[in-house]
Amino acid sequence: MWSNGAMNVCSLPATEMSSLLAGGQLSARELLDAHLARIDALNPIVNALVTLTPDRALERATAADDAHARGESLGLLHGLPVAHKDLLATAGIRTTFGSPIFSDFVPPSDSLVVERQRRAGAVMVGKTNTPEFGAGSHTFNPVFGPTRNPYALARTPGGSSGGAAAALAARMLPLCDGSDLGGSLRNPAAFCNIVGLRPSPGRVPSITAHDPWSPLPVRGPMARTVADVALYLRAMAGPDPRSPFSIDQSPDTLAGSLERDLTGVRVAWSPDAGGLPVDPAIRAALAPAPDVLAELGCEVVEDWPDLSDAAEIFQARRAWLFAVGYAPLLDRHRDVMKATVIWNIEAGLDMTIARYAEICRRHRQLVARVHDFMRLEDGGFDFLAAPVTQVPPFPVEVEYPTDVDGTPMETYIDWMRSCSDITVTTLPAISVPGGFTPDGLPVGLQLVGRYHADRSVLELAHAWEQATRWNERVPSETAGAGQ
Predict the structure, then answer these.
(1) Is the peptide bond before 160 cis (omega within 30 degrees of 0)?
(2) Catalytic one among 18, 27, 85, 420?
(3) Half-sphere exposure (CA, 13 Å, Cβ side) for 405?
(4) Which of 40, 117, 471, 478 is 20 to 30 Å from the Cα of 305, by its Cα?
């Protein structure tokens, strides 16, 4: 059985943990114990996990070991410890949505993505912290307080899947799920030097979405390597008849090696995501990106599609979602709701149907423009590449950046347009570790693929990861704990 220290086993990729479990060199209970030791040592400092379920986890790990003893596997995620974002319902386990309104809420059933992970053999150890209703890319709320970045404890891990990203970076878990509306899988991945994939809408279906016809909110995987994300996505993906536009796919779509010949692959690169204000430290960290991509065989051109009205479209459609989802709570609970959440709900309630119809027309036109821009037969591109974030991780006491490189930000989400503009395109996008600022703060590279080309995004990200190895740089502030 595995004999190295907890830190060593917890630092392994999930794919390697899976191989050791399958080969009998490591038991699910040993793997769980190692991660619980890391959690005990680090979670009081980082505050990434907000509701722990060690007893249930032990039952699941024992069931995985018993199955292995019979020569059976529980599935793709057999014996692997995971945690679920506290926006996702977990049957019999407190789910707060980061809101005091739901501080004692215990759902009767699991969300679909949680159910799929359980059926794939995952061992749930708890829930990860999130801002109130997932609003904003900084993880804090009045129920559990702020989560801290393992690379710099005085800084934010981003959000809204910030608890998940911090848990992964601190090696408290190998896999965590999340969700992404304006960047909530990508932003915290960039801030915490891990990998976060925003899949194509419908790749990971949801049956509890506020507006099941909206292509903006998605669920997806986070991990420390691209291969781990691919494994995790396989367990989450696939159609469900209750989700209006879930993607039907072959079981082999995401399976197999991610190695690929990238010779001649065309990449549109923009150091500022099409002219957005970007902190000089982000620009400097990603300055080598075009050369690295070229060394991989890509044909890199500095170019970008016209996303000039993406912010307006995103703000309006986001406001609509907040009105649909949270307006019923506003009259009864305004006094305990975050000001930015109230603003977003009221922006949706104040929108006329004529305004929303105009936004929908413009959204259709934007998607058509991006399609034309990327059409290969017209000299287009296989991928877009740009910074994930416009700023490095900021102090944990700051609610959100009010300016970027001297440019004022009008709302609490303007500073993350490098992600939210891409959301509006409906294309799959990944954040992969891209470097560090001079003071050691992580920076992410965003790679955006063609329509439904999730696997291609994973392949390019894997090649980048193998070439740069930025993902192997561990956070010094938490690296030694829990051994």
Answers:
(1) yes
(2) 85
(3) 14
(4) 471
- Structure-token pair, residue 404: 């970027």
**443 phi and psi, to 5 degrees?**
-130, 135
418 catalytically annotated: no
Two tokens at 309?
Answer: 């009205």
Residue with the two structure tokens 């709320």: 141
Contacts of 308 (CB under 8 A, 6+ apart): none
Distance CA 121, CA 61 (A): 9
Q: Where are the beta strands (DSSP E) in 190-278?
A: 195-198, 218-223, 266-269
Rounded to whole angstroms, the Cα distance separating 164 from 178 reads 7
- Helix boundaries (H) for 125-175: 162-169
Q: Single out the residue of 241, 294, 245, 247 nearest to residue 269, CA to CA.
A: 294
DSSP H helices in 297-428: 310-333, 339-349, 353-374, 417-425
Residue 209: per-residue pLDDT: 86
Q: Measured between alpha carbons, how far is 201 from 182 in angstroms, rounded to an integer?
A: 13
Q: pLDDT at residue 130 above 50?
A: yes
Residue 404 bridge partners (DSSP): 407
Rounded to an integer, what distance in angstroms lies between the CA atom of residue 34 and that of residue 26? 11
Check if the beta carbon of residue 135 is closer than 8 Å to that of residue 103.
Answer: no
Q: Which of 18, 27, 111, 160 is catalytic?
A: 160
Q: Evaluate if residue 3 carries a pLDDT over 70.
A: no
Tell me the Cα Rg of the chain: 21
d(CA 140, CA 160): 9
**Residue environment code for 183-193, b if the CB has 16+ CB neighbours within 10 A, otherwise e:** bbbbbbbbbbb
Q: What is the pLDDT of residues 33-69, one digit of tens each?
A: 999 999 999 999 999 999 999 999 999 999 999 999 9
Q: Are strands 49-52 and 123-128 parallel, antiparallel or unpaired?
A: antiparallel
The question of whether 160 is a catalytic residue gets the answer: yes
Whether residue 202 contacts residue 214, with contact meaning beta carbons closer than 8 Å, is answered with no
Marked catalytic residue, from 111, 184, 200, 214: 184
- Binning the chain into helix, strand and coil, the percentages to the nearest 5 are 40, 15, 45
d(CA 270, CA 280): 14
> CA angle, 89 as apex, 200 and 174 as ends, to 5°?
65
Q: For residues 135 and 153, is the Cβ–Cβ distance under 8 A?
A: no
Opening angle at CA 63, ends 60 and 67, nearest 5:
140
Q: Supply 365's token pair.
A: 């036109």
Beta bridge partners of 268: 301, 384
Name the strand (E) or helix (H) holding 432: strand 429-436
**C-alpha 270 chain-centroid distance:** 22
Confidence check: pLDDT of 102 > 90: yes
